[in-house]
Amino acid sequence: MARPPESVVHGSAAPPEHSPEASAKNLPSIDRLLRAPAVAALVAEHGHTLVADAARSLLADFRERIGHAQLAPSAIEFEAIERSLANRVQARLAPRMKPVLNLTGTVIHTNLGRALLADAALAHVQAMMAGPNNLEYDLATGARGDRDSIVEGLLCELTGAEAATVVNNNAAAVLLTIAALARGKEVIVSRGELVEIGGAFRMPDVMESAGAKLVEVGTTNRTHPHDYERAMTERTALLMKVHTSNYAVQGFTSAVDEATLSSIAKKHGLPLATDLGSGALIDMAAYGLPREPTPQEMLGAGCDVVTFSGDKLLGGPQAGLIVGTREAIGRIRKFPMKRALRMSKLPLAALEATLMLYQRPERLARDLPTLRLLTRPLADIEATAQAVLPALQTALAPRYTVSTVPLQGQIGSGSLPIERLPSSGLAIAPVEKKGSGRALDALAAAFRQLPTPVIGRIADDRLILDCRCLEDFTQLTTQIPHLSL
Ligand SMILES: *Cc1c(COP(=O)(O)O)cnc(C)c1O
To answer: What distance in Å separates the CA atoms of residue 85 and residue 54, rounded to the nearest whole number?
Structure first.
């Protein structure tokens, strides 16, 4: 709920005789405040600790503001204090993490939590977290089990890998792979693939953290097989390819594909690892989406290890998935750092349920929210924009005009940034051109302050609300009366 302000500076009460400002002498004691019926009711509901603590901090704030002559007497009338206290208690009980409406047009938005979990994953998490489970317990033998075994079979089935393991996220998967296979040795990577993925994940830094020496080959735009061959020494331990997920090098380019690189690696008895980043488990092109290389293709081309994220195109929880040969995965699993990077039972339950959805590919576009949103028919998105339009027009007139507009969205989270998703949404523009920048910022802020904050984007002097991820338009329309401009 929107929080009313804690105090009102200009009240209607008559000022006290001597001073137009509130006096600290008029503040009630903590004890008197806590005994007041309305406050006693708060204590009965939430307990003494929280309410007394909120009361102490409220009175301390009042005292300080009185000291700075910032409070009107009406603000410290007893009833006003009671209301302020109730608001303060509510504010303390309101979680910092809250649901938002992602109307940015970027479906897998890292700042907004990436993939949405499927109902099946939510249900499995709830069922598994509410009590004990067989996380590391082998029910057949009654002996200690391995948490990897919960998803390893599924991952092997879905990707064709011999073995699989999972860690906390893909950054951890890459770090662990390099450390386990090449600590103290050299890793050859093309200069065109030395990516930074945001959040300070840069390939050269990851190499250093993993204790491996990065050997760069080729140039930014072109790398050839002989570049790798020439860089090999007896200290080389790993060849690595990184999927350049968040940018595209276009024009006069050349990269060495996995199959070619794999034959070079094999000739020298070295493993080849590929960091796919997004790693879709299905052929995205079959759904009319931009093509993404799959782990199964990478393994088929001869990669020994493929790493990818759980919460990007896969549509599951934050996770780092590592699939590959029995030999390479065995070394990775045994490496001591694995213990520090292991997945917790909570996302593991979500991952298992998400992977199980892939066993029924015909239903996937319905069951997996990420794929459902990415494949949502344009007509549907347009209908949503139309449904929201009248209420927004009424609420924002006369200061803003609102219209439906065709838009270009994106997949997000390291899928090709140059590929666009045709979408539809609302464009809100200030009528008064003077000061329109400030008016737009204020409007965007008002949407962010709704009970379920609405996150759009500002472009071309308009606030854009992309409706692709708004499957239930009432989530927006019911909030419009709360907009405070
Ligand atoms: C996203 C990405 C990562 C990091 O994955 P997280 O799951 O966010 O840790 C690593 N490499 C590539 C190529 C990526 O796209």
So the answer is: 7
Q: Please state the pTM of the whole predicted model.
A: 0.91
In CATH terms, the fold of domain 101-109+375-482 is Aspartate Aminotransferase, domain 1 (3.90.1150)
Residue owning the nearest CA to atom 13 of ligand 1: 277
CA of 243 to the centre of ligand 1 (A): 9
Q: List, for residues 365-424, the tens digit of each pLDDT value.
A: 999 999 999 999 999 999 999 999 999 999 999 999 999 999 999 999 866 666 789 999
Q: How far apart are CA 201 and CA 121, in angstroms?
A: 28
CA of 308 to the centre of ligand 1 (A): 7
pLDDT at position 5, please?
A: 45
CA 267 / ligand 1 centre spacing (Å):
29
Give CATH for domain 119-367. 3.40.640.10
Residue 237 has φ and ψ, to the nearest 5°, of: -120, -20
> Which helix (H) or strand (E) covers residue 217, if one does?
strand 213-217
- At 207-234, the pLDDT tens digits run 999 999 999 998 877 888 999 999 999 9
Q: What angle do CA 293, 229, 294 make, to 5 degrees?
A: 10
* Closest residue by Cα to residue 325 from 282, 360, 267, 273: 273
Structural contact between residues 469 and 101, judged by C-beta atoms closer than 8 angstroms: yes
